[in-house]
Design goal:
The complex is a heterodimer of chains A (388) and B (218). Chain A is of the alpha/beta class. Chain A has helices spanning 3-11, 27-35, 69-73, 139-146, 163-172, 185-193, 195-199, 201-204, 206-231, 254-274, 292-298, 314-321, 333-336, 340-357, 374-385, and strands at residues 22-23, 45-53, 57-65, 76-77, 81-82, 96-100, 104-108, 114-118, 130-133, 178-183, 237-241, 280-283, 302-304, 326-331, 360-364. Chain A folds into two domains: 3-56 and 66-89 and 136-385, TIM Barrel (Alpha-Beta Barrel), CATH 3.20.20; 94-134, no CATH class. In chain A, 40% of the residues lie in helices and 19% in strands. Chain A has a seven-stranded parallel β-sheet with strand order 5-10-11-12-13-14-15, sandwiched between helices. A four-stranded antiparallel β-sheet of chain A has the order 6-7-8-9, with no helix packed on it. In chain A, strands 1-4 form a two-stranded parallel sheet. In chain A, strand 12, helix 11 (292-298) and strand 13 form a beta-alpha-beta unit. The longest helix of chain A is centred in the middle third of the chain and has 26 residues, at 206-231. The radius of gyration of chain A is 21 Å and the shape is globular. By secondary structure, chain B is α/β, with parallel strands linked by helices. Chain B has two domains: 4-84, Methyltransferase, Methionine Synthase (B12-binding Domains), Chain A, domain 1 (Orthogonal Bundle); 94-213, Rossmann fold (3-Layer(aba) Sandwich). Chain B has a five-stranded parallel β-sheet, sandwiched between helices. In chain B, helix 1 runs parallel beside helix 3 (38-58) and helix 2 (21-33) runs parallel beside helix 4. Classes of the chains: A alpha/beta (388), B alpha/beta (218). The A-B interface holds A 103-104, 116-118, 121-123, 126-130, 195-196, 199-200, 202-204, 246-254, 256, 290, 309, 369-371 and B 18, 20, 57, 60, 62-66, 68-69, 72, 103-108, 129-130, 154-157, 184, 187, 201-202.
Chain lengths: 388, 218
């Protein structure tokens, strides 16, 4: 089997010839490993860039260009091959420094938020910015912002969007899975209004929250339509970013989810399913247990990263929900990073059980953090591989 | 028009049922018009309502949205009451020095904790975010606070908490202050490792721990 076939087998609850293994690395972790003796054959350049994932998450990330940790360690990236469409605001806001002093800099991001960050810090990603203002504050600013969320804008697709060529690319890709990524109804609202403002919107201006969700559905389906109808199930997996929970539970209550978001989730997942795409992975940190029943109803079928520190337990979810979710993650990074007995205990207690139950791909319960030394990560790789 | 007790009940219920700031402010004005003592409005009305919100949050009936909205309602109510504070004696449960540790500029959780702690009767000295160790020490000495509440979102910055605890020892005040940790990056295991007294899973739990330390709970 190719890596892609293995991943597809597992997420469809079929037996692979060997268990695939997925990780995602903070580039910063890899940069640190270079300092600790990681020898890459070819390191062309390391650059600090503003990453525009989905156009809606703008952070300073150091990008290691010219080194591929996935092939080096023998794991797969969660995102093998992307559908290259732009689901961010068009036009982007002009990135500029709003104010700065000797310690901090406040910067207008391309999504229109103002992010405050340290001017210099040991780890840039780990000192991630604090957003101090957001582009959408009320109905008026939302109506303005909406103009940038036009699904018909031709710039959403690459200039070389020739359907047959892309079909070939997606058919011939085997190094990992093929993915279409977009931001969900909570994630987009929290990005545009800020967590504190968006979380109380249901109580302060429910009509606005409903209009935002309605437009996001129209925008999402409208934007991905051509790609989805062209590529269909050549797209192995949808990556649906939400980050909608904290340790205690979901940021919004199941009641708000059901009343405001659920109908829109269903419309998007039904559209995908009509096009033979039914592997829909939600990325949410935190404790999403109280909202899992509604995820099932919404048509979502996969979960990552299943943070142990927030009370997520993959074995428990498999027992409660059967094959309703394929699962990726749930290896407690806090235990794995300790190495030795702690690391082995964590892997031994989960991977063989979940491998047997099926529908599970081992992975840390988030990206590989900078706390990992190069040696500890190699130790983890070696031990995990005995179960693959 | 009802009795004072009925009015307190209405204030409490309006807050705990999240009926909105306008209704709550109307009830506060009504109470003020009836010359009800501000301390009673706060303690028998608002505080009781907020405690009910905390209970529902801990029980999994309310979530972050509800917590934030109740905080926003509470702030609106306090805006109405603040002009009447002059000369009013508040009974304090204790004093807390609060801040996000050096290297970390995140404050959502810290701010929710602050609001619930104040509403529960604690005097809170909030030093803000990215706070130097020395600033915590100075404020603890100034205020003679019994509780130091430290917040960190990030796993890298949580190590600053150990630096602060070591500084408490060096300054000879470790035994005079309880140290509470909060934030996504901490748990009780970590608290034990670095010599803190407790870690809170969320802001509401944090306030409950402070109440226990203040001897309020059985």
């Amino acid at each position: 089997m190719t890596p892609r076939e293995r991943i597809n087998a597992v997420i469809h609850f079929r037996k692979p010839d060997m268990l695939p293994w997925i990780e995602n690395f903070y580039d910063e972790t890899v940069v640190k490993w270079f300092r600790e003796g990681l020898h890459a054959d070819e390191i062309t350049v390391i650059e600090w860039v503003i990453s525009a994932r989905d156009g809606l998450l703008l952070l300073n990330w150091p990008a290691v260009l010219g080194f591929d940790p996935y092939s080096y360690f023998g794991c797969q990236n969660l995102f093998g091959c992307y559908v290259p469409i732009d689901v961010g605001p068009i036009p982007r806001f002009k990135r500029k420094i709003i104010r700065e002093n000797e310690h901090y800099v406040e910067m207008m991001t391309e999504t229109g938020a103002v992010a405050k960050r340290f001017k210099s810090a040991k780890y840039t990603w780990y000192n991630m910015p604090m957003f101090v203002s957001f582009p959408v504050k009320d109905k008026k600013t939302w109506e303005e912002y909406k103009k940038r969320l036009n699904p018909e804008d031709p710039r959403r697709y690459p200039k070389d969007w020739h359907r047959d060529d892309y079909i070939k690319v997606f058919e011939n890709y085997h190094a990992g899975n093929t993915v279409l990524t977009f931001t969900g109804f909570y994630g987009f609202g929290a990005q545009l209004m800020g967590i504190e403002n968006f979380n109380v919107l249901y109580y302060k201006d429910r009509e606005l929250m409903e209009d935002m969700a309605k437009h996001w559905e129209y925008f999402t389906i409208g934007t991905i339509k051509d790609a989805v109808e062209t590529l269909k199930d050549r797209i192995d997996m949808i990556y649906w970013w939400e980050d909608m929970a904290e340790k205690h539970g979901p940021c919004i209550s199941p009641k708000i989810f059901k009343e405001v978001f659920l109908p829109h989730y269903k419309n998007v997942t039904n559209f995908l399913k009509k096009n033979n795409i039914d592997r829909i992975l939600v990325d949410s940190d935190g404790n999403i247990n109280p909202i899992l029943d509604l995820f099932v109803e919404a048509g979502l079928t996969g979960l990552w990263p299943l943070e142990v520190g927030s009370g997520m337990n993959a074995i428990d979810i498999r027992k409660r929900y059967g094959n309703k979710f394929f699962l990726i993650g749930n290896l407690d990074k806090r235990e794995i990073v300790k190495g030795g007995e702690s690391m082995m205990r964590e892997i031994d207690s989960k991977v063989p059980v979940l491998k047997e139950l099926g529908g599970y791909i081992p992975c840390l319960d988030h990206l590989v953090p900078v706390e990992f030394t190069f040696e500890r990560f190699k130790e983890y790789c070696q031990y995990l591989k005995k179960y693959l | 028009m009802g009795s004072s007790e009925e009015l307190f009940e209405k204030i409490s219920l309006t807050l705990s049922s999240l009926e909105g700031s306008e209704k709550l402010k109307d009830l506060i004005h009504e109470a003020l018009a009836h010359k009800i003592q501000i301390t009673d409005i706060i303690e028998k009305g608002l505080r009781k309502g907020l405690e009910e919100v905390g209970k529902r949050y801990e029980a999994g009936e309310y979530f972050l949205s509800e917590l934030l909205f109740s905080a926003s309602m509470m702030n609106d109510a306090m805006d109405v009451l603040t002009p009447y504070f002059k000369g009013v004696e508040f009974k304090r449960k204790g004093t807390i020095v609060l801040g996000t540790v050096k290297g970390d500029i995140h404050d959502i959780g810290k701010n929710i904790f602050k609001m619930f702690a104040q509403a529960s009767g604690f005097e809170v000295h909030d030093l803000g975010v990215d706070v130097d160790t020395q600033k915590f020490i100075e404020k603890l000495k100034d205020t003679k606070a019994e509780i130091l509440a430290l917040s960190a979102l990030l796993t890298t910055t949580r190590n600053e908490m150990k630096v602060i605890i070591d500084a408490l020892v060096q300054n000879g005040i470790r035994d005079k202050v309880k140290v509470l940790l909060g934030g996504n990056a901490v748990d009780n295991k970590f608290a034990e490792e670095i010599g803190a007294d407790a870690a809170a899973g969320d802001a509401v739990e944090g306030v409950e721990i402070c109440k226990e330390w203040a001897g309020e709970k059985q």
